[in-house]
Specification:
The chain is an alpha+beta fold. The protein is 27% helix and 25% strand. The chain is built from 5 helices and 10 strands; from the N terminus they run H-E-E-E-E-E-E-H-E-H-H-E-H-E-E. A hairpin with a 3-residue loop joins strand 5 and strand 6.
């Protein structure tokens, strides 16, 4: 990744709101808490019509430390507007993570949802479907296969493709990311056992 651009974005981080999404009689609300699971950089815009998409990676429970994480991305122009992730040293249950993703999707104008389907990701997709989350993407929607299976299957080839696209859009200045944790991971992104990833995952 372009480290100059990483440093530039780190220096211009907007005000961050931290808390969690909650369901209420007035619809989904964002509520500040002492133990936040979500960071918002840009709230939904009333006049914005191009939509949002949520990408999620579910923790594998590795000894080296692994955290479930989801990003809410504004589609035009591309910008990470919110991040769902437990605080340092904490972990979210699959149930809580799925619920925060579901509520975030409602909050951001019925955003499309794409959860990595490997391992516990399948359970998150199942919970989202059971709770009638809207716009859950399937493999056929992503032109990955003809399968109706929910989510995105992380394989060596799909990972390389995803990372290559991320690098291209980021380095060309077509994707804005202000989250310091994500930006920091970009500074130590290397192949590990043939898999491109941050040195210390999570």
């Amino acid at each position: 990744f372009d480290l100059h651009r990483v440093a530039q974005l780190k220096s211009m981080t907007p005000k961050i709101e931290q808390g969690q999404f909650v369901d209420s009689s007035n619809g989904v609300q964002f509520q500040p808490t002492n133990m936040p699971t979500c960071r918002i950089y840009t709230f939904p815009e009333d006049q914005y019509k191009s939509g949002y998409i949520i990408g999620a990676d579910v923790a594998e429970g590795l000894d080296t430390g692994d955290y479930s994480c989801a990003v809410v991305v504004k589609r035009l122009p591309l910008e990470v507007v919110a991040v769902i992730r437990a605080g340092q040293g904490d972990q979210m249950s699959i149930d809580d993570f799925a619920e925060q993703v579901r509520l975030a999707a409602k909050y951001y104008k019925d955003a499309h949802i794409c959860v990595e389907s490997n391992a516990d990701g399948s359970a998150v997709n199942m919970l989202l479907a059971e709770r009638k989350a809207r716009n859950i993407l399937r493999e056929k929607d992503l032109d990955l296969s003809d399968s109706s299976r929910y989510g995105w299957r992380n394989t060596s080839s799909s990972r390389r493709l995803g990372v290559a696209l991320l690098q291209t859009y980021f380095n060309k200045g077509e994707l804005a990311i202000f989250d310091h944790q994500i930006l920091q991971e970009m500074t130590n992104f290397v192949p590990v056992n043939g898999k491109p990833q941050a040195v210390k995952k999570g």
